[in-house]
Amino acid sequence: MSWRLWVPLFAFALFVGLAAYQLTQPKDEFVQSRMVGEELPYFELPPAMDGVEGVSNASFADGQPRLLNIWASWCLPCIAEAPHLESLKEQGAEIVGVAIRDRPEDVARFLAQHGNPYSRIGRDDLSEVQLAIGSSGVPETFVIDGSGVIRHQHIGDIRADDVPRLLAELEKAR
């Protein structure tokens, strides 16, 4: 009868031990897309502002690999990655943008201040495309091959040391 008094204590000790073990494990801050290796899902996005073309999945099926950059004007890391997107563009990468939950005037202001590396920019007001391709946040960049298949995912803002790696991934996607 006295062993029943110890059951809650053992259960609590087991819980504390499990919690302590989990705290010692390395933290994975990023959610990898399960869409890498898969074809882009169907989508058609209107232009994010006047003077640019919108984006559809068909835009990626013309034989040329491209970068698909998920971004927003309200995103601070997107400001930090802007010069590196310009560098990618200058080195021959075509970059297609998807502006997440953004207003046309905010997109225009962001691009006027930080440059426009995009050949097209679609407006994803409900984050539908972002979620469909497995993007976990902004900014995030995907390498899409010439037949519309996602070949690589870069999570977070692009930094100077990421530029050569993304160019190499684009080359592999040819």
Detailed description of the structure:
The chain is an alpha/beta fold and 174 residues long. It has a single domain (35-172), classed as 3-Layer(aba) Sandwich (Glutaredoxin), CATH 3.40.30. It is built from 5 helices and 7 strands, in the order αβββαβαβαββα. It has helices at residues 3-24, 76-90, 104-114, 128-132, 163-172; strands spanning 44-45, 55-56, 66-71, 95-100, 118-124, 140-144, 150-155. It has a 5-stranded mixed beta sheet. A two-stranded antiparallel sheet has the order 1-2. The longest helix has 22 residues, at 3-24. The radius of gyration is 21 Å and the shape is elongated. The model has no long low-confidence stretch (mean pLDDT 92).
